[in-house]
Amino acid sequence: MNTQQRLRAIVGALALIGIFFQATSVLVKEGSAVLITRFGRPIRTATEPGLHWKFPWPIDEASLIDMRRRVYETGLTEMLTRDKKNIIARTFVVWKVGNPVIFTQAIGAQNGVAGAEAKLDGLLTNAAIGTLGAHDLSALVSTNPSDLQVDQIESELLDTTAPMALKNYGVTIEQIRLERLALPKENVVAVFEQMRAERRQFAAKYEAEGEEAASKIRSEAELEAAKIRAQGAEEVARIKGESAAHVAKVYADAHRTDPELYRFTRSLDSLSKLVTGRSTLILRTDSEPFSLLQGKGQK
Question: Can you give the pTM of this predicted structure?
Fold first, then answer.
């Protein structure tokens, strides 16, 4: 065998080895998985990144499956709440392939993401209709924070759809959120009137509480004022008593010291009280206390 023949043999062997390698090896990338089927029946799933092996076609066949997370938004769907209010809702879901075997059998590798999201759309719509139908509108839209139950509703949606999606479609649902809520035009007026009624209830409650507090403050103020007036009256009576006692003592001391002077000053006091600028009296001048005008009161 000459050199040219030997070179042809080497190239041919390498080509056969390359063809065999390509037919029996599978490269799994990060975020992907490969489902290996043997005569159309799934036998194993390669999920670890790297090089994996299989029998060549037509014995084994490899299907590449994208395992990355995806976000899907459902369409706007009109539904009825428990209190018979129409709402329009849209949800979004975070999902990924959880079981490649079931995913391929239920949806098909050729349909992929589009097929999975079509299945999820119907599943989520039915779940939303059932779940929101078990709650009043106030659980979604309310001015009272204690009435809102959005987190609970989203949790119920996840609990309802996740097991079914994994079992039937091989899809793992990680998160469901209510993305948008709207109202049909005919319900907007009723909803706003309900919100106004709730605001009026709050206003009436706050006004009643304020009036109660104001009444309490007024009662306490009146009680304190009455107490102060009573203390003041008591103090005035005490001062008047002390003054009257002091005056009586002064009069008594004056009477003891000079009875004639005391009688004279008392007569003057009486005269000043009886005769004013607009008084007209006709009395005897020799009687008390007018005798003072003639100097008789000094005898």
Answer: 0.53
